[in-house]
Design a protein that fits this description.
The complex is a heterodimer of chains A (118) and B (112). Chain A is mainly beta. Chain A is built from no helices and twelve strands. The chains are: A mainly beta (118), B mainly beta (112).
């Protein structure tokens, strides 16, 4: 069974600084996807960034980038130039690849609560 | 694209009552997922539909839980004879096959 582990329950960053959130996962599959989702308080889960396992290049989305280390099964999120609006719970998630019969459900870590200090 | 809509936002009920939640997915999405999120945890997968077919339901937490998607559009999640441990946020997400899931705001269930 696949598992996702986020070892940092809480993180704090100063506004305009950079922070890295950690995620490790376990799987025996070679084809899968990894995601970071953001969940602000009392608001919906929003996709931040996704990574296809077959791609060696790390995904980037504006101030958000990942460090994907497939052999180490590590998938960290770096937030640059942190803003007050980045404060939220961040969830790392895994999904199996799109082979026939794949359910496509997400497996989530427990989350990291990010605080941004002005 | 009006997003995924869930109703009600908050449901308070007494132990032993039945509750039903509704999810309206993004209109062109053929997959619909239900998750449960308890305090301090990430969402936990419950069940999913592709069009009107429920393709996985073994993860539903007990036989008190059931879900339907009668016409391949909206879906309902019902919990019968609610228990204290059912208190949680119930999230719905939709997607096209192979594409990222879009989540609704969730329904928070509180059992008195």
């Amino acid at each position: 069974a696949q598992t996702v582990t986020q070892s940092q329950p809480e993180m704090s960053v100063q506004e305009a600084e950079t922070v890295t959130l950690s995620c490790t996962y376990d799987t025996s599959e070679s084809d899968y996807y990894l995601f970071w989702y953001k969940q602000p308080p009392s608001r919906q889960m929003i996709l931040v960034i996704r990574q296809e396992a077959y791609k060696q290049q790390n995904a980037t989305e504006n101030r958000f980038s990942v460090n994907f280390q497939k052999a180490a099964k590590s998938f960290s999120l770096k937030i640059s130039d942190s803003q007050l609006g980045d404060a939220a719970m961040y969830f790392c998630a895994y999904r199996t690849g799109d082979y026939g019969g794949s359910q496509g459900n997400l497996i989530f870590g427990k989350g990291t609560k990010l605080s941004v200090k002005p | 694209d009006t997003g995924v809509s869930q109703n009600p936002r908050h449901k308070i009920t007494k132990r032993g009552q039945n509750v039903t939640f509704r999810c309206d997915p993004i209109s062109e999405h053929n997959r619909l997922y239900w998750y449960r999120q308890t305090l301090g945890q990430g969402p936990e997968f419950l069940t999913y539909f592709q069009n009107e077919a429920q393709l996985e339901k073994s993860r539903l937490l007990s036989d008190r839980f059931s879900a339907e998607r009668p016409k391949g559009s909206f879906s309902t999640l019902e919990i019968q004879r609610t228990e204290q441990g059912d208190s949680a946020m119930y999230l719905c997400a939709s997607s096209l096959v192979g594409q990222p899931q879009h989540f609704g705001d969730g329904t928070r269930l509180s059992i008195l």
